[in-house]
Specification:
Largest sheet: none
Structural class: mainly alpha
Number of domains: 1
Number of strands: 0
Number of helices: 10
Order of helices and strands: HHHHHHHHHH
Oligomer: single chain
Length: 187
Amino acid sequence: MGTRRKTTQALLVSTTELPVAPKLPFYDRLKDLLERIDFDRHVELACRPYYQSALGRPSMPPSVYFRLLLLGYLIGVDSERGLALYARDSLNVRRFLGYALHEPVPDSSTLSRTRRRISLNTQQEVLGWALQHLREQGLDGRLARRSGWATSPTALAHRPQSVPAYRKFVASLAEHAYSDELAAELE
């Protein structure tokens, strides 16, 4: 029987030693479907009024925000903190969002700031548009059959996929953010 050994962190790591996640068809299929409907371009055009090119530090691209929200919506991750942790911990989600292993993914405060910057109407329009196009391409059936590839089997099965449900989702994100901020103030 082996015993657990204490691990040490290497100072330098060869790129061939970096972890590589097995590709999950769920993320690849969703990414392909989003590319087919030109999701990133649509999001950038819809969010253009909310972004200034010359002011402040570079922001998270709106397409990354909406990809993460869409993914969270489809698999049942209902908080900004949960979305950020999910993105940070999953190599497949990093690949889906377009982040390399060495790049930091957006944290929950960035998601919260972005949510507050973009109007609820714009968020509803973008996600409603995306869900409509993904349904037209048969996403509903594929996701229902494949939900176990991304999350627990029941998370997707019980999640309604409609714009009214998304309004509740965005509202719950705001509620979670407010309770997190309130808890931080009380500490």
